[in-house]
Specification:
homodimer, 2 domains, DNA-binding, two-stranded antiparallel ribbon
DNA sequence: AACTATTTGTTCGTATGTATG
DNA sequence: GCATACATACGAACAAATAGT
């Protein structure tokens, strides 16, 4: 009925314990960003384990985004600033594994993005204004790689997310845009003909005017339009990219 | 101006290539959930690489939640269903690394949770109703471990997140509750005296009545109250757990 | 209960690749 | 070109856990 009365002495792998200790050291600031961890050999000596164990631990920390390793004379494991890329990758995995569907994604975007636009409208600065206008201009240009085109069309969303001043929202938007990109690229042969202009225009306009409510409304309208499009894509997407239920070739 | 004209032959590590191939195989359904991957030695033969490389790849896949390995005669690497736990861990890392602050978390919760409550109110079933009532009853009971107490008080949130039918929201709520737990446990010595009752009562009441708007409003009120409390905690929390700027013992 | 087979966990020794000075 | 320092990679061996006989 009660929990376990004693902790197991050593249930986890050595590499996990090493990874945990190194992670704690980094979080406690004992290794600062950009700083180099001791070499694998020295770590192996300090922890009194083999180098393989150290390597596996560094691999784990690398996967979580805490360190990145370089080889060569001045190489080693360097502490890196944790970014939202890990988050995006995690979301992408969940999406690819069918743990998140397109309508679900759409629903979240519909809730989050207008709110982000509203916040952004309250944080306008000349620098941000310039970036928004530039992004809008670039959208209009023709001629771009397909994947570049998608990136350019999501630039406004990224800037707004940055403007809203909430990194949680920012990470969320980045992740959602990444998933959207995944769907779009998998389904639409060429996006360059799509919504040739004016799509983000009204949103940016409202944001630049500092009108939060108008920005909210404009983004919401945009999200609904685009969401409808996304929904229609879903079947095509799942048909193309989800063999798990139809492979069964045996 | 253009991108690289040729792809590098092999820039990434062997273990990463192995991990990528195995991951794709899993995503394509060539290994189904619960199925066992070939043993490390066989994989090493098939990929024509060393066992260490295979091990590092399996470590990576394990960290991402795609496989879990067991030791022993019937052991090996088994494909596991991807869960939102990875997501929660990623968020936790970001939070511990000060990439997400308490006010930011609070802002997201304020947006998301009321919406989740509204959706939940539209998906009431007898089974969910029973679980909600049970969770509410358990909240009232005294005598619990501190950490258990926090878990019990967040149970209602988890159930509502499940009820809303959107796994993206569900994962988000789970992650946010985990971060909240982190803050609470770090700051409040004992939560058992807090809001002894009626906190979630009104929310659950509205949900069970199928009244989405009332559920939205009740949850929003709850979130605001609790958010204020959280904000007050932040300073205390950062003072206790954020030595990075004050360690500098050299 | 003891033995055996299988598989991961762990270590060591060694060789190779890569970047710096 | 050369020496140095480091990560990367391999092979062989043994330890530990687990299931079956």
């Amino acid at each position: 009925m009660a929990g376990p009365r004693f902790k197991p002495i050593r249930q986890s792998r050595i590499s996990e314990e090493v990874a945990e200790q190194l992670k704690q050291s980094i979080l406690l600031g004992q290794f600062k960003t950009g700083e180099k961890l001791p070499s694998e050999r020295k770590l192996a000596e300090e922890f009194e384990v083999s180098r393989v164990a150290i390597r596996e631990a560094l691999r784990t920390l690398g996967n979580s985004g805490f360190v990145s390793t370089r080889q060569g004379s001045a190489g080693g494991a360097f502490v890196t600033e944790l970014t939202f890329e890990q988050l995006t990758n995690t979301y992408l995995d969940l999406f690819l594994a069918n743990k998140i569907s397109v309508p679900e994604l759409y629903e979240v975007r519909l809730l989050v993005e207008p709110e982000v636009a509203r916040s952004a409208a309250q944080n306008v600065s000349s620098k941000y204004a310039g970036r928004l206008r530039a992004a809008l201009d670039v959208e209009e240009l023709p001629l771009a790689t397909l994947t570049d085109d998608v990136d350019r069309k999501s630039a406004v969303h990224f800037i707004l997310a940055e403007m809203c001043g909430n990194r949680f929202f920012e990470g969320l938007v980045r992740s959602m845009m990444r998933l959207t990109k995944q769907v779009v690229e998998a389904v639409i042969p060429d996006t360059r003909h799509m919504h040739p202009s004016g799509l983000h225009g009204r949103v940016v306009e409202a944001v630049l005017a500092g009108d939060g409510e108008a920005a909210f409304a404009a983004m919401r309208r945009h999200a609904i339009e685009f969401g409808d499009l996304l929904s229609k894509m879903e079947n095509a997407f799942r048909d193309k990219n989800s063999p798990p239920d139809k492979v069964r070739q045996k």
